[in-house]
Design a protein that fits this description.
binds magnesium ion, Helicase, Ruva Protein, domain 3, 52% helix, binds adenosine-5'-diphosphate, Rossmann fold, 412 residues, three-stranded antiparallel β-sheet, alpha/beta
Amino acid sequence: MSSGNRVDEIFDRFLSGGKIFNNRDVLRHDYIPDKLPHRAEHIQRLANILAPSLNGSKVSNAFIYGKTGTGKTAVAKYVLNRLKEKANALGAPLKICYINCRLAGTNYRILADLCKSLEVDVPFTGLAVSELLDRYKEKLNLLNLNEIVTLDEIDFLVKRNEDSLLYELTRINEFLRGNWVGLIGISNDLRFKEYLDARVLSCLSEEEVIFKPYSADELYDILSERAKSAFIEGALQDSSLKLCAAYAAREHGDARRALDLLRVAGELAEREGSNTILDKHVKEALQKIEDDRFVEALKYLPLHQKIILIGVYHLDSLCAEGSITGDLYELYTELCTSIFVEPLTQRRVSGLLNELDILGLLNTRVVSFGRYGRTKKIKLGVPSKIIAEVLSDDDVVGSLLKHEAKLKHKRG
Ligand code: ADP
Ligand code: MG
């Protein structure tokens, strides 16, 4: 078949609607379904916390945390949407504002969003953050409004060392005239609490709601509910659904991963012209998602991490056992010199090795050499093929992939 015909075939299949998807959009991350299986308790808990706002009483601040994909954002939006409808129907003087701190990016954007929720006009940039905060408070007082402010992925505020905004927000009620702001903080990072100022923490966590990872059975229920509207009837085998749930549970019970697997498996089946999603499509999808994740991580690595990885890449090909720190450092300096980059100290490199291990790009393990002391065994955590593919396009380090190591004492 000529490639022209093949392209036509792809277009035709697309136009005829394919044989797999009925509505791909319901598998998107931001889609909020009408039913959230296995989260009824969390929904009720949050509804109980927020209900007093409907007759004007101040609500307790709440702190929601749990790993990614455990339904925190979905549950919060679900309850907030219903609260908003109820408040509108009652004509309650209540505003509701949802902000994702990671996406908002800066304190300025977060405050601008808060102002916007009260229809206060603010320029895109240019004012002092404190000025925005003042305008926000003034408008709340002027309209005598209460507001529930949800700060999702709130850990990003603290990671950027911008927790002063959090501090200001937890004190905001002192400047209001009887009306109030209730805060809901949501974090994917379980250790986030350790980083918080004690006063901010106690204020924020008047109520705590914890989201546990889903089990494989729970993920199965979530996926099958979603699959009903996502796929054409009969396009999804039950065994494939089970496999998606099992894979996602193996990681940490992440519903987002489970939905991604299902979507990508569907796309692979569709691309193949199959009218059923088979187990093999799910297996391929798992591989594809993992590879894509590595590709993203690799692309945005700082220079020295890339050089270190290329060092491990070469040593891995010399010795399948994995390399040791000393050899790696020697090769790393050799690589740096060959592209006129000043090498970092061994100590710094050791720190970077740990970071690469955390990212899953390397696997390191401490081994003992008896009286010669201890060292680290290092292996790639990524298929070497992916390193070669991604980094060969890199202007600075690409040439290093072809480097002939001059190591003095090759092991293995
Ligand atoms: P988190 O905010 O905890 O990282 P999300 O709420 O964004 O997780 O959930 C990830 C994805 O999984 C979203 O697409 C969401 O709609 C879906 N999801 C999570 N929990 C459920 C559930 N109980 N029922 C249906 N879909 C869910
Ligand atoms: Mg979330």
